[in-house]
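ok so for the tutorial part 2 we go from a plain amino acid sequence to predicted C-alpha cells. step 1 is just haveing the sequence, like this:
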Amino acid sequence: MPAYDSRLTRQVEPFRLPTGRRLPSAQRNPVVSVLDEIVATGIVGLDEVLLGGVPRQNNILVEGAPGTGKTTLGLGFIHAGAARFNEPGVIVSFELEPDKLLRDARAFELDLERHVKEGRVRILQTTPAVLLSEFRSPDGAFRNELTSIGAKRLLIDGLTPLRLYAEMHDLPFREDVHLLVEGLTRLGVTTMVTAERDDGSHHAHPHERFVFDTIIELSRHESKRRVHRALSVIKSRGQDYINGSHTMRIESGAGVLVYRRAQSRPKILEEQPTSKQRLSTGCPALDILLDGGLYEGSITMATGISGTGKTVLGVQYLAAAVQAGKRALLVTLDEHPQQLIRNAATLGFDVQRMIDEGAFHIHYESPLELELDVHFDRVAKLVDELGIQCIVFDSIAVYEMSSPHEASDYLYAIANFVKGRLATAILNYESPELLGLSQISEELKGSHLVDNIILLSYVEISTNLRRAIAVPKVRGSANVQVTREYAIGMGGIALLDETPAETSAVPQLPFSSYYGLLARSPSRRSPAIDEAISQGKPIPEATPLPLEQPI
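step 2 — the prediction. this is what the C-alpha cells look like for a chain of 551 residues:
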C-alpha cells in the first residue's frame, strides 16, 4: 500500500440522478413531456453545478475568450452522449478540419474516432452560408444527416463565424440568430454552440444571450504567473443551478473538469449533528486544560510560530484517535509525507505502520499550484470514501497565501463540511510572531468560527527560550485559564510540572512565578529578594558576571 496520496485523480463518473428525475411541477409543461427530462452533459463536475444537467432540447451557448476550452467542452459533451448515454451526436465545424478535431479529442482520451466509425458521431465541415440555408429549408440535407443516426446532441463550433459572415454580407445577424435557434428547436436535439468573446468584453452580444436557453461562460486569467480557469452558469431556463464562479481545469487524458466552488457545498443535514463524547489530544495534561478533551465534531485552531510543535500536536492527536479506533487523515501542505513520517518516528509515532493498517491517511498537495476548489473536492472525497472521523489541516496559512481574498470564506466551507459529518478537526495556523501573541491571525479572520483555540508560543526568560501553551477558548467547557510550560520529546508534547529548577545565578522558576508570559515581557522577582524585603533584611548582592579579558 502506498504511504500517501500525492495526487488524487478525479473520478469521472457522471452525476447520477434518482430514477425518473423530472423538473419541479411549476416548471413542467404538461403537454410536451420530453422537455421535462434532464440531460446530463457528461462533463465531470458540470452536471453537479447544473444539479444534474440541462432540460432536454435546451440550446446551450458556451462563450469565452480564445483558449478558455470552449471546443474541448463541446467535444466532451458529444463524446459523453455517444459513449455513456446512448445519445448519438453531430459536430458542425466551420474552421477546424475533422482530422484536427479527432486529434484534439485523442489528447484527452476521447475516442471520437471509434464512435465516428461505428456511426454514433458525425463530423460535418461546412460554411455559415450553407448551414443557414439548411435551417431555412424544412427538409434539408442537414436534417437528414441528424435523422440518419438518430442524433440527440449537436455541437456547432462556433457562433462567431456566423456573425462574421453576416457582417461581411451586410445581413442582419439578429435575424440569423433567430433562424438558427428556431431551426435547432425544430430538430429536437440538445445543442451546444460555442462563441468567441474578446478579453476586453464582459459578455457576448445581449441579443445572443437572450435567445439561448442556457449560457455557460468560461474565463482564464493569470495570477502570480499561474493560470486559473473558471466556469460560470449565467442562466439556464427551466431549472435551478449553482451560481457563482467554479474552478475549471483542462487536463490531459481527462478533458474538462469542473470543481464547484467550495462555499456552495450544501449541508448534508438540516440540523448540525452534535455529540457529548470527547476525544483525547494524546496529551493527558492538555486534555485537563480542555476540560476533558475535544468534543466530537468540534474544530480546534492550534496557532504558533514555526517550531512550537503544531505538526507534532496534530500527529499526536491523530495517533491517539487511531488507538481509539478512529480513522484519521492528515492534510499536509507544508511537509512532504516521507519527511513527516521520518520526523514522527523520532518521537515514537509509527505513522507508516498505521498507514499500512489503513487507519491513518496522508494527503499532500504542493502549495505552489494549489486551487482551493480542487483541493476541497479531493479532501471531501477522501473523507467520504474512507469514512474519516479525525482530521488535521497543516497548515491553513497556505490557504491564505494561495488565495488571500477567499481564505476566510474557504474556512467556513471547511467548518461546515467537517461539522456536517461529525468529524473532529484541528486547523494548524502559523503565527508570524516569535515571542508571545498579540493576535491570533492578521488576515485570516477565522478564530471566531472555531470551537477551541490552543496557543503555542516561545517565552524568553533570562537567556533561555521556553515553550508556553494556553487554551483561551473551549466552547461548552470550563477550560483551565492558565499558561503552562511544555516540552517536545518522545511521545510528542508533554506539559511540565510546576516545580522550580535549581540554579545558582538566575533561578528558572515555573511559569506560575511570572506575569505577562503571552505579552512578550514576563516579569518576576527573585524569591531571595522577596524574602529579604518581607523580613526587612538587606537585598542580597548579585552574582558577579564574568568579564571578557582583553586580548
